[in-house]
Design a protein that fits this description.
By secondary structure, the protein is α+β, with helices and mostly antiparallel strands. The protein has helices at 4-20, 33-45, 56-70, 120-124, 127-137, 197-209, and strands at 47-50, 77-79, 83-87, 108-111, 141-152, 169-174, 186-189, 224-226, 234-238, 243-245, 253-263. It binds 2-oxoglutaric acid (AKG) and fe (ii) ion.
Length: 264
Amino acid sequence: MNTISEYVNLIAGSVRQDRSKSIAPNIPESTPERIRRAAMELAQAGITTIPDFLPQEECDNLRAKIENRITNLTETTTIADDVTVSFRGGSKPARRYRNAVNVDLGMIDMFDADRAVSELTAIKEDTMIRDILTLATGRELIPSRLNIYINRSVTSTRGYHMDSGALQFKAFVYLTDVNDLEDGPYSFIKRSHRFSTRKYLNITQNLMSGYHLTEMSNGNPADVVHALAPRGTLIISDQNGWHRGLPQTDGRSRMLISISFLPR
Ligand SMILES: O=C(O)CCC(=O)C(=O)O
Ligand SMILES: [Fe+2]
């Protein structure tokens, strides 16, 4: 169950974030255009997409290395170097999702994958991503964990949600082409990272209904963006914004890098 103190903490954290968000970040004239555009869009919309971040050949190499580490695994296992490959078991009533039908069943989440595949370290430490985050937020954010998500025929996924009330961004890099909705793209409600009465209504309704407090519904359909893009594309997302991975059609697969950024 939710406790009143979790509710109060989430409200307080969200209010703090809403107040700190600037839609007109101060970006020096000397900033390269690609970085300026991305930082501005991230601040204003809560999400930005940067094509051709990784060459497709590098995506293919990384994918092969990652697949190599998970072949023959069928359940949650800690492989070498404290890297845990987690197989999501689907929702139980205790998960308290609004759409609680086998949510994320079959999704593979490889935690701290950079410890198993060393080429991922340079991507985690990439300076362009950090520059964009600093310019968009006026804060220094540092990469905390790098995970690989592998979705193969994951036909039910968690609905729109915020990750927490705290300041957190994620950088995602597609390692497979996500060219249509059936592939299960990352999806985001533009501007939902900022204040809205809907957000606080959702949190309050979740308290009453016993759902996770961060479940979010009734985003404006006109503000939905589905990140359809070829492999190698970078997506940077404000995790106070409402987002989800769309459910896939049976037979489709998607692999991506997810790097979580938190204040120092
Ligand atoms: O799988 C996705 O596209 C989104 C997952 C998600 O909600 C997250 O990484 O916070
Ligand atoms: Fe999330």
